[in-house]
Amino acid sequence: MDVEPVSLPLSSALSTAAGTIDRREGFLITLEEPPGIGEAMPLPGWTESLEACRDALETATSIVSDCGVEAALDDLDPTATPAARHGLDLAIADRRARVAGQSLARYLGQTPRESVPVNATVGDAPAKKTAERATAAVDAGFGTVKVKVGARSVDADVSRIQAVRDAIGPAATIRADANAAWRLSETRRAIEELATVDVSYVEQPLAADDLPGHAALRGGDVEIALDESLRATGLDAIAAADAADVLVLKPMALGGVRRTRSLALEARARGIDPVITTTVDGVVARTAAIHLAASLGIERACGLATADRLREDLAPDPAPVEEGRIAVPDGPGIGVEFE
Ligand SMILES: O=C(O)CCC(=O)c1ccccc1C(=O)O
Ligand SMILES: [Mg+2]
């Protein structure tokens, strides 16, 4: 097992209520004979720190040489060091899929979709700029735009979303992601306004642990999606509280694509619709997340169109966005080729 540090500058930073992401640092993991690749790209606040990830992968490397990859994977805690576990789990899954001569999507599920619908991600910016970015996305063929809110007043955010609807017309789907920045009373008010411009869902309006608050917001024309709450409270608590219509799952924050697939299936069995997104990862993790979404047959647009934010990537992109969808690579494994 080889662990190589990687650092990816973003060409366009992502501004959110929880801060701005402008660089991604992590590790590329390589297994040999048979080959497999994985990516551990920690995002502090969502996963362990870079240092904790490095330490966990160092320990994993020594367990691999003494006891093999499965023992090393067992030792990686999906809650404490989810990005490190994601990296090794993916390298193992990629290796197994390649050995079986299957795409990762087929290895994960028997009848994957050939392509997945994806949303454009529009960061915080003034109303005019927000509307321009949303228009550019719809002109490029996206059927869904997700707009980051919560970095300014609720009134300002409502105006931004109204400007987006005015600019893009009635056809495209709009979502708003508040990254836990809003309070219950102002969210009720915002949702009333957002319903009039046909916003499909609001993602994580309230604090991650406020499941009763989110439950109280459900039932109207605007659905409630939970993201941060999954790691903070767990699926059992979310389902028991009836707190979500949609669950946003990030493999890097949840300890790997295979665990994330199990969680997504469990969510669906409990009547909650899963959506897969990245944490603005490199091509290895991003493409793996595309395979995962395809293996689940997800019909809602997923947050996987994040490649264009990277100024540099780890390898050429085998799965570009076309007309708001990404075709899943159908060769063996993840399908990322290093030059
Ligand atoms: O879902 C998307 O459109 C892209 C991913 C995204 O928004 C995101 C990226 C990094 C960290 C957090 C988030 C988030 O969904 O809150
Ligand atoms: Mg989110």
UniProtKB/TrEMBL annotation:
Question: Which residues does the annotation say bind Mg(2+)?
Answer: 177, 203, 227
UniProt cofactor(s): a divalent metal cation
User: What is catalyzed by this enzyme?
Assistant: (1R,6R)-6-hydroxy-2-succinyl-cyclohexa-2,4-diene-1-carboxylate = 2-succinylbenzoate + H2O
Q: What is its EC number?
A: 4.2.1.113
Q: Where is the Mandelate racemase/muconate lactonizing enzyme C-terminal domain?
A: 127-223
Q: Which residues form the active site?
A: 148, 250
The record's listing under InterPro entries reads: Enolase-like_C_sf, Enolase-like_N, Enolase_C-like, Mandelate_racemase_C, OSB_synthase_MenC1
UniProt-listed Pfam families: MR_MLE_C
Q: In which pathway does it act?
A: Quinol/quinone metabolism; 1,4-dihydroxy-2-naphthoate biosynthesis; 1,4-dihydroxy-2-naphthoate from chorismate: step 4/7; Quinol/quinone metabolism; menaquinone biosynthesis
One GO BP: menaquinone biosynthetic process
Q: What would be an example GO MF term here?
A: isomerase activity
Report if keyword Lyase is assigned: yes
Give the keywords, sorted: Isomerase, Lyase, Magnesium, Menaquinone biosynthesis, Metal-binding
Query: Function, please?
Result: Converts 2-succinyl-6-hydroxy-2,4-cyclohexadiene-1-carboxylate (SHCHC) to 2-succinylbenzoate (OSB).
**The family this protein is said to belong to:** Belongs to the mandelate racemase/muconate lactonizing enzyme family. MenC type 1 subfamily.
Official protein name in the record: o-succinylbenzoate synthase
Recorded source organism is Halorhabdus tiamatea SARL4B
Supply the gene name: ykfB2
